[in-house]
Amino acid sequence: MLWAVGGWAAQRRASAHAGAVILGLVGSVSAAIFAAMAYGAEKELLMILLLCAAAGLAYGTFGGMLIAMALGENNRSKPD
């Protein structure tokens, strides 16, 4: 659900920079949550969380740029 809301927000902004920020944060948070759920109370949990959060940030950043540019509303095609 978090990714759906993030994708909608990135699409509504229609800016590559804003889309990258929005989905980058969504990716970082969701990856950290899933890593915490998957690994529980492992000894190296902090390192795993940081690694997963960085991977989610990278994935979300590029995905956000693509979604915002490809699915953004085209204001030039609307009649006046």
Number of discrete helical segments: 3
Instruction: Estimate the helix proportion, in percent.
Output: over 70%
DSSP E strands, number:
0
What's the pLDDT, averaged over the residues? 78
Q: N-to-C terminal Cα separation, in Å?
A: 36 Å
Q: Rough shape?
A: elongated
Q: Would you tell me the structural class of the helices and strands?
A: mainly alpha
Order of helices and strands: HHH
The main β sheet shows up as:
none
User: Unreliable runs, pLDDT <50, ≥5 residues?
Assistant: none
Strand proportion = under 5%
Structural Rg = 15 Å
Please, could you describe this protein's structure?
By secondary structure, the chain is an all-alpha fold. Helix content is 79%, strand content 0%. The protein contains three helices and no strands. The longest helix has 27 residues, at 45-71. The protein starts with a helix and ends in a 9-residue tail after the last helix. The mean pLDDT is 78.
